[in-house]
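Entry 14: structure prediction run for Branched-chain amino acid ABC transporter permease. Input pasted below.
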Amino acid sequence: MSAVLNKRNIIILFVLVSLVFPLITTNTYLIHVMTLAFIWMIGVYGLNLLAGYTGYLSLAHAGFFAIGAYGLGILTVKAHMSFWLAFVLSLLITGLLGLIVGLIALRSKEHFFAIYTLCLGYIIYLVIDKWESLTEGVRGLIGIPAPQGFGPIKFETEKSHYYLVLFFLLLVILVMYRIVHSLSGRSFIAIRNSEDLALTIGISTARNKLTVFVLSTLFAGLSGALYASFVRFIGPDIGNTAVIFDMLTYLIVGGIGTLTGPLIGTLLVIWLSQLLQDFQQYRMLIFGPLLTLLVIFYPRGIVGGVTDIYRKRMAKKEKQLAGKKDSYIQSDLGAKNQVKEG
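Run finished. Output C-alpha cells:
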C-alpha cells in the first residue's frame, strides 16, 4: 500500500484532476498559476533525479533553466527560427553544456560539488546579465513567440498552453518512472547510498553520474524553454541563485528522492504563496520556520514522512500478529501436553 500511496494513486489522481481542471473553472488566472506550477515541476524533477536518487546536489539548476529559456528566446527572436526547431535546439544546447560542465564538476564530491555548481550558476547569471548584445541584459527578451500549432491544434490560449505543458510534464513523469524502476535507477541509488561500494560491485560511477547530470540539465532546459514560450518575456532574474532555492524548497517540502514529491511540494508551496500574497514581504518569515520544522521532523518531506509513518504502523501490526501467533502456539502446545499427561 505504501508504494501505491506514493506512486500509482497519487499520479492517477493528479492526472485526472489536471485534465478536468480547466473545464471546471473559467478563471484564467488560476489556469495561469497551475501552468506555471507544471513548468516548475519539470525543473524540480530534474533536480530530484540528481540530488534525490544520486546524492549530488547541483545548485546550478537555475542557470540551466535560464539557458533553456534564453536558448529558445534568442533563436526565435534574434535568429528568427521556427518555434519547434528553436525548442529542440535549445534543449540540445542545454544538454551539451550540461555534458561539458558535468565532465568537470563531477570530479568533486559532496559539498565541494554543491559549491562548484553554485559558483557556476552565478557565472551563468552574470553572463546573461552582462552580455547585452546577445541577451539584451536587464532589458530582457521581449516578443518570444507562442508554440506553433499542428493543423487545427493551436496554442494561443491559456487553456491550450496549459494542456501542452501538462503533456510535457506527464512525459517527464513517465521518463522518471522508467528510470527509477530500471537497472540504471538502481545504479543511481547505489551511488547515493555508497559510491565506494557501488564501485566495488562493478558499477561505472563516472558514467552513471554524468548520464544523470545531463538528464537533469535537460529537464531544467525543457522547463526553461516552456517558461519562455508561456511568459513570452524573460530577464536575467530567471537565472538568479534565489530561483534554485525556491526549487529546493519545492523538492524538500514534497519529498526528496520520491517520485511524487515534486508534484506535491510544488503545488503546495506555489498555492500557499498565492494565498499569502498579502504577506509577500514576510514570505521567508513564514516559510523559513515551517521549512525548518519539516526538515527536523520529516527530513524526507511530506511523501517520505507519510511513507515512514505507514511502514512503522505496518511493522507494529506485524509484530503484534507475530506475538499473538506465538502465544496461540504456546497455548496450543500447553493444551496438548495436558492431554498427554491426563
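Notes: The first helix runs from residue 2 to 24. Will compare against the previous run tomorrow.
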